[in-house]
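Ticket #4471: structure export looks truncated?
Reporter: QA, pipeline team
Priority: medium

Steps to reproduce: submit the single chain below to the structure queue and open the exported record.
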Amino acid sequence: MSRCCALARWWRVHRLRANAPNAQVVVVGYPRLYTIGGTCGIFGLSDTERTALNSLADTLDSVLADQVTRAGFTFLDPRAAFDPHTICSLAETWVTSLELDKINESYHPNQAGHRQGYLPLVTALAG
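Actual output as written to the record:
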């Protein structure tokens, strides 16, 4: 990380702590997208491509967890909760597949993912 970016990051964390010293900051990670070897019909990505996208989510969460912990905040990892509900799974899917009419929602958690995946994690943390 460059010196400029590190300083900007430090300043944002410092301002947050100064403005809300008792706040518990929680950063929620990103789920894996695909079930490997799942049922996706005849169209779509190969298992190799799905594995690469899942690896990207793992890398993103690893970096997020590291940076969040360094800042003294809490990281919530949603992957275990979402794994049975990824695209191509046999269960209810909690992640939106590629949908051209809803491109901004593609590859993001859907309403079920927020309600049944993220919400229980945050609720458990709140006690």
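Status: closed, not a bug. The export was complete when the record was re-opened. Leaving a note from the reviewer for reference: The helical segments are 3-19, 47-70, 79-82, 111-126.
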